[in-house]
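BACKBONE STRUCTURE TOKENS:
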Amino acid sequence: MYRKISTEKDLSSILSFTVTDIQSTVTRLVALGAEMDGPIKYQIQGKATRDLRSMVEPAKTIFIACEEDMEEALLAAKMGVRTFTSDWLMNCVMAQELDLDAHQFAESL
């Protein structure tokens, strides 16, 4: 079964693929006449864990905390982990940018 793809101007396709050098690939495609209707979305790499003991690199770890996580947030901060509130996380999602210079959760404790 084949589907006909619409080519109307108000519809667009989303492509997702992996290349070794994104900048040179985009430059070549634009030179060939390609157009972009928005920014390139980069995949974020990382892991999620519920156990602070399983951390490998505390300096590269972010701990998202709420009031109920006070004890764990303090422990994480003492281990060198950056601790932020869930509100911080939502602000980062809305801005589509990590604000690592923001006030940390455990700093005020």
Q: What stands out?
A: The CA atoms of residues 5 and 78 lie 55 Å apart. The first helix runs from residue 22 to 31. Strands lie at 62-65, 82-85.
